[in-house]
User: Fold these one by one.
Assistant:
Number 1:
Amino acid sequence: MKKANKNTARLRQPQQKQWRLSFPEDEIKYQWLPLLLDAYAIIDKGVASAISKAEESRKVKLACREGCSECCTTHADIPVYPLELFAIYWYCTEKLTPSATDTLLPRLSSFGKGDQCPFLLNKSCSIHPIRPVACRQFNVFGSPCAPGEDPYYTRRHDVMVPIQGYVNQAFLVMLPFYGINDDLAKKEAIKNNFIHTQARSLKEHKWSGLIKAMKDSL
Ligand code: SF4
Ligand code: SF4
């Protein structure tokens, strides 16, 4: 789930905040986008911290590498939140290169139950900058996943455990998208795992709306 494709090179690199991607014009146009980019920056920072702590304390090395994408083909369930779906629609209609769009459209059109993630193109995540939290957090130590292996079931001890404080902070940042704005309500929402109740399955999502939007954007 880790390899970026050429689209990543089109991104403006963050200047001030090391972890945050920046799309200034789009962030003015779409008020939900800064919430997601802020949240992803926190998630990514938490992932880096969890990896480095595990490598240090357990004397293991991260197996995930660029070009390694077995996890994108084997995972049956990839949770995705409504805010993340907004981002996927935006990215696919406004940020993909024409050639990525040409490749992705038939993938989405023929996508069916049990297929691998439709956004995996040529062993590369076509939506890498805005890939879901679940993909960002799935990291494995030791050896790379074998074909067909889901290490969550075969060797869970090698799967990175996210640091909950970062996850909670990232979800807190997302809450205004769901109309939760005051501090007390936010605290309650985190305590009650509100964001998790919003999760959908990426593999079960109907992509017909996205296909139409992508075609309209050509
Ligand atoms: S090692 Fe496994 S989890 Fe990591 S990128 Fe490769 S296939 Fe994905
Ligand atoms: S969105 Fe799909 S292709 Fe991208 S990292 Fe997640 S599972 Fe892999």
Number 2:
Amino acid sequence: MVGLGVALAVAAGGLPAGGAAAESSAERGDYLVNTVMACGNCHTPVGPNGPMMERALSGGLRFETPDFTVHAPNITQDAATGIGGWSDAEIKRAIVEGVRPDGALLAPVMPTTFYQVLTGDDLDAIVAYLRTVPAVEATTPPRSFSALPEAHPFPGAEAPIPEAERAADVVRNGFYLATIAHCMECHVAWTPTGPDPVNGLGAGGREFPGPWGVSVASNITSHPEHGLGGWSDEEIARAITTGVSRDGSRLKPPMGFGYYAGMTPEDVGAIVAWLRTLPPR
Ligand code: HEC
Ligand code: HEC
């Protein structure tokens, strides 16, 4: 009896704060896909009333550049029009290497250059969750391109950051989360040759035209006037998770606050801690 009591106490001590039971791989994947990584921000169709959740992940946004026109495809489990017929290895290769089973390269709109930082466990979790996504039959128009720009890994995202390293350092964890959330795909300075993560990390300025007009990615470096330097942690967390800026104004798409709303306070806090370390621009 005594032995059992000790075992229970140890097990209870090992539970995460809040007392929630350990999450399964598919649950972890659900969290990653639908909050931090906001896959639906591109892959879910948008109707007049916002994202069409009954057709979640069945194909969404169109991306047009001088070099290519692509649509975020159907990644539901439909075998004919989605990825239901792909093996786990094929899905992982598309996510982290940007290569389809037929060998075709994906346009770098799909943020594979950020996803190489994913740990094996998180990649397994994403695939486990995708397997649970209801099949929706939907085709997106064929892709067309003259050239695909060369894709380079985001600096620091060349290899997975182990779980233990993140558990030991909140800023490191924040970098991991902000990277898989690809915040810096939008909030980086853009030059005629593409993004400049070395000199323009967090500087913003990239324009996003859409039904909302044109939104401009904000400067989210620690600059005291142009960036977030003068904001409190709570104000930054509120902007990320509710889309309300410091002055109370509402942020426009494609900032993914509707997805980030579901992030745990710990994960939002880690991202804020990392943003604080960005040199002012
Ligand atoms: C910024 C927009 C964007 C985000 C975010 C995004 N994707 Fe994509 N994804 C795309 C686009 C666009 C393509 C197609 C590119 C092409 O056709 O060359 C694509 C292709 C894919 C493919 C290959 C499918 C096929 O039929 O070729 C898979 C699998 C995929 N994405 C999974 C995901 C997952 C899982 C996530 C989240 C972890 C995600 N994507 C996040 C835009 C995005
Ligand atoms: C797909 C592009 C995109 C992604 C990804 C993105 N953002 Fe944004 N973000 C924007 C745009 C555009 C705005 C400005 C919206 C506006 O002004 O209405 C913005 C605004 C913000 C603001 C408000 C700043 C201010 O001055 O009001 C913060 C903070 C922010 N983003 C942080 C983040 C973080 C952290 C991430 C990753 C977890 C992220 N963003 C991911 C496009 C993006």
